[in-house]
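thread: overnight batch results

M.L. [08:02]
morning all. the overnight job finished for the chain we discussed friday. pasting input first so we're all looking at the same thing
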Amino acid sequence: MHVIINVHHDDDWVKPTASEAENTKDRLGSLWTQVATHFKKYNDSLVFETLNEPRLQGIPEEWIGGTPEGRQFINDFNKTAVDAIRATGGNNEKRHIMIPTWGASTIPVAMNDLVIPNNDSKIIISLHSYFPWQFAGEAQISWGSSQDKIELEAELDAIRQKWIIEEGRPVIIGEWGSIEANPLQSRIEYATFYAQQAAERGL
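M.L. [08:03]
and the structure it wrote out:
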């Protein structure tokens, strides 16, 4: 079994704004120094993930890729965490580390503006894809037509093209699925198709 440890929804202090960024980096660096030190003897079955869906809550761009300034702060936060982990030594010098885009979004602007800290060769891209959201997250539409499948394949193709083909980076889709309000059979068909198509693309 592989285990991923992350900073998960600490949104009250992980804030990509000019007024809060330095405080966030100080606290994030301290946190990851402590966590990484505690686990540095663990082998490669343990992966660290710097942040989970980092974003600024309540702004219009919260779930559509963020702002240019906000995306740069996320890059700074990822680098702070990676540097802190690597500095603890031991197995952490070579451990795989996952880093997210703004909000772990697959929106092109979020993926395109992600910067790999230090061009580190052991960085994994962390993304979430509840696609399409109207089915997966809101249960407002049905899913399962030929067009639905084409659109989902296009979503996964875009992820593969950007990261695996163009950047040579592994990808973990850390969150995906559909809510219980959808019909069970639709959820089963969706999950089966999603998992097969993701695996075929190396995601």
